[in-house]
Amino acid sequence: MKKHNYSAGPCILPQEVFEKASQAILNFNNSGLSILEISHRSKDFVAVMEEARSLVLELLNLEGKGYQVLFLQGGASLEFLRVPYNLMKVEGKAAYLDTGTWANGAIKEAKSFGETVIVGSSKEENYNHIPKEYQIPSDANYFHCTSNNTIFGTQIKNFPKTNVPIVCDMSSDIFSRSLDFSNFDLIYAGAQKNIGPAGTTLIIVKEEILGKTNRNIPNILNYQQHITKESMYNTPPVFAVYTSLLTLQWLKKIGGISAIEKINETKANILYSEIDRNPLFTGVASKEDRSIMNATFVLKNPEHQELFDTMWKEAGISGINGHRSVGGYRASMYNALPIESVQVLVNVMKELENKI
Amino acid sequence: MKKHNYSAGPCILPQEVFEKASQAILNFNNSGLSILEISHRSKDFVAVMEEARSLVLELLNLEGKGYQVLFLQGGASLEFLRVPYNLMKVEGKAAYLDTGTWANGAIKEAKSFGETVIVGSSKEENYNHIPKEYQIPSDANYFHCTSNNTIFGTQIKNFPKTNVPIVCDMSSDIFSRSLDFSNFDLIYAGAQKNIGPAGTTLIIVKEEILGKTNRNIPNILNYQQHITKESMYNTPPVFAVYTSLLTLQWLKKIGGISAIEKINETKANILYSEIDRNPLFTGVASKEDRSIMNATFVLKNPEHQELFDTMWKEAGISGINGHRSVGGYRASMYNALPIESVQVLVNVMKELENKI
Question: Which residues belong to any copy of the Aminotransferase class V domain (chains A, B) (predicted)?
Answer without folding.
Answer: 5-345
